[in-house]
Amino acid sequence: MSLEIIIGNHQSAVEVPLSWLTALEDIGDEAAGLALEVAALEDSPLAHLATLEVALVDDETSARVHMDFMEIPGATDVITFHHGEIVIGTEVAQRQAKEYGEPYGREILRYFIHGLLHLAGHEDADPGERKTMEAAQEKIVAHFWTKCLSSKLV
């Protein structure tokens, strides 16, 4: 797979080192390939993308996008658009990381992988789908965290 990944930090509420953006861009193509290996849809949107844009945003922006596109109030962790955009809520990631005793960078990685899996056709609306998606997600997160990112995303 040859997917151009552009990750931009569009917020200043919480620190996101530039090295994190670079690290995620560096693993993006391989991560997308792994997401396609466990694709829920054979002809998923991810299979047809040439470029993927990832926007890191604050709670205010996340809440606005969440309401505008999903009609759900409040900030959220990740929103994925099939045209090739993933919106990640950095403040949500920071709170969730603290709550679950995870490194903040690993939570950002988790949301990135979650978005890729949505683009591969996975859904998480019902408990069975969510369980399948989370199992694939955590396997991919563990792969990259152990392989190369634990020292870059802390």
TrEMBL record:
* Gene3D superfamilies reported in the protein's UniProt record: Metalloproteases ('zincins'), catalytic domain
Question: Which co-factors does it depend on?
Answer: Zn(2+)
- Alphabetically ordered keywords of this record: Cytoplasm, Endonuclease, Hydrolase, Metal-binding, Nuclease, Ribosome biogenesis, rRNA processing, Zinc
What is this enzyme's EC? 3.1.-.-
Where does it mainly reside? cytoplasm
Per UniProt, what is one Pfam family of this protein?
A: YbeY
- What is the free-text note on the cofactor? Binds 1 zinc ion.
Where on this chain does Zn(2+) bind?
Answer: H114, H118, D124
Top-rank taxon, per record: Bacteria
Instruction: Give yes or no: UniProt keyword Secreted.
Output: no
Q: Where does it reside?
A: Cytoplasm
The entry's family comment says: Belongs to the endoribonuclease YbeY family.
What PANTHER family does this protein map onto? ENDORIBONUCLEASE YBEY, CHLOROPLASTIC
Role summary: Single strand-specific metallo-endoribonuclease involved in late-stage 70S ribosome quality control and in maturation of the 3' terminus of the 16S rRNA.
What name does the UniProt record give this protein? Answer: Endoribonuclease YbeY
Q: Which organism is it from?
A: Luteolibacter algae
